[in-house]
Specification:
The protein is α+β, with helices and mostly antiparallel strands. The protein has a domain at 1-125: Ubiquitin-like (UB roll) (Roll), CATH 3.10.20. It is 27% helix and 18% strand. The chain has helices at 18-24, 79-95, 103-108, 129-136, 169-173, 210-215, 227-242; strands at 2-5, 8-11, 48-53, 56-61, 73-75, 143-145, 152-154, 182-184, 187-190, 193-196, 198-199, 206-208. Strands 2-1-5-3-4 form a 5-stranded mixed beta sheet, sandwiched between helices. It has a 3-stranded antiparallel beta sheet with strand order 8-9-10, with no helix packed on it. A hairpin with a 6-residue loop joins β6 (143-145) and β7 (152-154). The chain is globular and about 65 Å long.
Length: 245
């Protein structure tokens, strides 16, 4: 399908989102909640763009808007778009003034972070990446709770979740570094739980929890090598095979 983004004509597959199409053409659309490995939800609303179809123009979230018709026209940097993004960023600035991931955006859109009196600054921006990553893994140990200003990411009933496997997927996709964990003496602690770590017999790195390996369909008792050493061992076998050894 033929579409136009900022005057640039593109050919994309039906169902491609506007955000995906823009990225494929090297056109930058800011976003905080989008992640290549996760289903989009449009939580941050920062990726708003203007689209024109059959003479009608509207604001949409580019991560959630699929291309379904020929001739779609997209503008990613109009005054209306920038005003919408600035409004979102100002809301984030009131609660997350110190989040490193937001500083370049604050500067670009002229937002001056100023925390309202009585509000404790924090790093979580409610993007939902961690919740989606957990659900994608099939564990669902995290979810949103509360409404409005009280909305937060937490475990069920704010207690250590039996569904958590300590895989760190939530921390890896977090854009602000809000989710932290600790590894010490062969154990990993996160979300109120502490897990043993399986040791690689080659490099002796403690690389995963038994619960994490079981979720991936691997028996912790036979998982002797970490992914890095397993790949190296496979490459060694290929080299020896090619040499006829």
């Amino acid at each position: 399908m033929e579409i136009t983004i900022d005057g640039k004509r593109l050919s994309v597959e039906p169902g491609t989102t506007v955000l995906e199409a823009a990225r494929s053409a090297g056109i930058l659309i800011p976003t905080l909640c989008a992640h290549d490995g996760l289903q989009p939800e449009g939580n941050c609303r920062l990726c708003s763009v203007e689209v024109t179809e059959r003479g009608r123009t509207k604001l949409v979230m580019s991560c959630m808007y699929p291309v379904t018709k020929e001739g779609l026209e997209v503008q990613t940097d109009t005054k209306r778009v920038r005003d919408a993004r600035r409004f979102v960023l100002q809301l984030l600035a009131d609660r997350n003034p110190n989040a490193p991931a937001l500083q370049p955006l604050f500067a670009e859109y002229g937002v001056n972070p100023k925390v309202p009196e009585g509000v404790e600054p924090e790093l979580c921006i409610r993007c939902g990446r961690c919740v989606r990553a957990c659900a994608t893994n099939g564990t669902s140990a995290l979810s949103f709770a509360g409404r409005g200003w009280e909305r937060e990411v937490t475990t069920p009933f704010h207690e250590a979740s039996a569904d958590c496997v300590g895989c760190l997927s939530c921390a890896e996709v977090c854009p602000t570094g809000r989710i932290t964990w600790e590894e010490k003496d062969g154990k990993r602690s996160i979300w109120g739980r502490t897990f043993d770590l399986v040791e690689c017999e080659r490099c002796h790195d403690r690389y995963a929890t038994p619960e994490q390996l079981r979720l991936a369909g691997t028996d912790p008792e036979t998982a002797r090598l970490c992914p890095r050493c397993r790949k190296a061992a496979q490459q060694e076998r290929v080299r020896l095979s090619n040499r006829g050894i």
